[in-house]
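User: If you would, consider this record:
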Amino acid sequence: MDYSLLFNAYAAQHGQQGWSRQRLLHACLRSAIRQGTLAAGTALAPSRALAEELGVARNTVLYAYEQLASEGFVQCDRRGTVVAAVPLQAALAQSAVPLAQAGLSQRMSNLRCSQPAAAPGGVPPPASQMGAFVPGVPALDQFPLAAWRRLLERAWRSLTPAQLNYGDPAGESPLRVAIADHLRAARGVVCDATQVFITDGTQSSLDLCLRALADVGDTIWIEHPGYAGALAAARGASLNVTGIEVDEEGIAPQPDDWLLRPPRLIYTTPSHQYPLGSVLSLRRRVALLDAARRAAALIIEDDYDSEFRHDGAPLSAMQGLAADAPVVYLGTFSKTMFPSLRIGFVVVPVALAPGFAQMRAHASARGRVGEQLALAEFLHSGQFARHVRRMRRLYRQRRDALVMAVQRHLGARVTLQGMSAGMHLVLCFKDESWRDEVISQQLLAHGIVAEALSAKAVQGGLALQGLVLGYAQVPAEQMDELIRRMAALLPPETTATARTSRRAQRKVKA
């Protein structure tokens, strides 16, 4: 669980009351327990570790834990300080009722689950290449495979003959509950299990949402440059695609876009824009939510690698910024665990959940009950959180090694983007004569996979020239040699660029 995100969000609302940090932390944890963000049975972080994460004295944490224990909110057992079973706030239990009855808002009355489009999907094939620098592939050799096998064996031993039948189309209930608990605690998502629907991954989620929530000919906005899978899903659903430019603060729609090309759906990757890596600012997030609500549009928030935030304070999901946020939230375990697991999820607004469930019930039934139950235990037991923390540290080290190698061997020939989060970064060429698709093919011939940035364009116009480098699966000790080889394969520099590059390299060596 990301306690810093939880504490910072609570402090932003209540810190102005002049409370001490002891009282603020105690009130934050008590509120999280009463609201179900910290579910019964959850083991709280050790006091020393939590104090380090929050930047407070250990006595501050001990005070908060002791107060919670005296009030009956936590108890101590062999696992440490554990959340006790306490009633949720009545307001929380009842909060879904008026939303479900009234809809998300009067201005969103047009949102509905439509008939699925009949056109076949244009989903690109999965990547068949491995090695440096394939984007989107985690450090597979670091996954706790032995522990995962044990969970699978335990899940299969517990299965009844009835569970060998077709599974619940919405997904196994224990996994939906586990995902809802995780998202509330780690991403600030406001949801319960009835809003969570299990899919076969992000591409499956996109196909499902675009066919369920839009009609043929409706307009969808997609970030430009952006994720090719979203573009393929939109074309497969026969939607009109409008590419919306991305800047250093993320997706940046202009007034004319809302006036001349009003969207039914808006696809965005706010936590780490793909491929440029920008993070959608809080100001931009709030503005996008307000504008989408006024336009009766629905935002599809793809939070594909939000767990790997390397620099700066974490930002919670857009979905949780407002009680009536017009957001469908997508997530996947392909980046945090392994791609062949093929388990993703969709979190829909309360008002859309019944229609979504009905549509799923008429779709093909799902299976893989054993894997879903094993994943539920992986989440609830804390093993998933521990694995993500390990990978976050590892990916930060690998990112740092890659950045240092680029600075050493490429100098001023390129600029770097998207380093603050995720599993990839972007090299943008400074020399306007370089063509990234040509360079990408040349590198591939020498065993280096570096996808062309221009291939991520969603609409016409001058495409950015650069390379997308995934670093999650590349050991840090290999980065320098790989970038040295890449630098040797790049085209000759112009005279001006070469002088600037040499000055930058001398600065790095100094």
